[in-house]
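Not sure how to ask, but would you mind making up any protein sequence you like and the tokens describing how it folds?
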Amino acid sequence: MFGLIGHLTSLQHAQSVARELGYPEYADQGLDFWCMAPPQIVDDITVTSITGQTIHGKYVESCFLPEMLASKRIKAATRKIVNAMAHAQKHGINITALGGFSSIIFENFNLQRITRIRNIQLDLQRFTTGNTHTAYIICRQVEQGAQQLGIDLGKATVAVCGATGDIGSAVCRWLDARTETAELLLVARHQGRLEALQSELGRGKILSIEEALPLADIVVWVASMPKGIEVDADNLKHPCLMIDGGYPKNLGTKIQHPDIHILNGGIVEHSLDIDWKIMHIVNMNIPNRQLFACFAESMLLEFEQLHTNFSWGRNEITVSKMEKIGEISLKHGFNPLALGI
């Protein structure tokens, strides 16, 4: 059995979803209540591969909300993640993906030092961040989107915003090793990590967001656009492909121009309908088929009976692991979300 640990995008979103899913005791409560609310299994899932194989899973709502980080309720946020992991393990789930902020919080706050939750000894082999599959899907979206728009990667400049993160660095490695991308622009906040990545790749220009955007034919955003950043579409290249790999996704509301093509990054579309409710409440265009690539990674590992933390740690994703998960993804009928043009 596979599991998905997720969370909603805001307190308001959480309240509306709780009401829709039949949890009235959650629906009218404020942030303090959500800080105390325990994790819940709120969906049973059935997925069928194009090979004919069928697997079953469960969605674990962590009850984490981004406002917990903004209001400095860090202990509540970290507790949410490890409690959700313990809840998944307690219910016998073999491999569980940490979706959204779950993996970021686990990594940034070094939660792997917490090995025991009440009477449960956490087995980290049962959990994956899903970042390898996400990075692979984003890279394929770059390649396929460029082809759709007539952008020649051999002559193109690609900017990766969030280049030093787990997914961002993996995207850079793929673009360096697997494509003939002419120019790679590395954008992130931590100068030391940028320089280390540049040294590892043996290429790439380190630039600020403001410097990189006007030069790029393709922009890969691995995180949501930072607050305070305003993008003038007239100063971008035309056409320009933007891959919105953040969560929640916000590029589409900030940039609207006929020559700027925004694609929801890290989203896959399955060839067959999935029996579940959860994607109906996170605004997927085709909720029976579309899902986050990180969630799909746990499904793929369950299909293959690879019950291991396939994606784990920071900047550990290799091109060969991306190729492996990519082969499995195609085998079972998952495809990168394409531009709707």
The chain has a mean pLDDT of 94. The two ends are 37 Å apart (CA to CA).
